[in-house]
Amino acid sequence: MIDDELLPYLPHLLEEKTFFLTDKDLEDLESIIVQLKTKSDDDAEEALYNFYIDHRQIRDALRELSENDREIDNLERSTSQQSSIANLFPRLEEIMEKMKKQRALSNDTEAKKSKS
Hints:
Blueprint: H1 10-16, H2 23-38, H3 41-54, H4 56-68, H5 74-115
Helix pairs in contact: 1-5, 2-3, 2-5, 3-4
């Protein structure tokens, strides 16, 4: 199992704080999600580590969410993290699909406005 304390916070970040994510961030995020699902745990953890290095603003936002969640004791967090990672990928894929549709719609709307 992938051992990353920030990963369970990714769905919340994507649902609540997408305003600072660029199209490149989203493309890289989509790529990392595929890697997390398909690579060995060690390779996936390394890919995630590199993603955090390349996307510090995402890593920092995830850390902030993690720090704000300190009221959960360590036992609950550990159990919660294990179950959430097991369900994480389908949820992330669903969120990413919604975001792509919203961005495409937004880009279409902006393109129509600029033509006018």
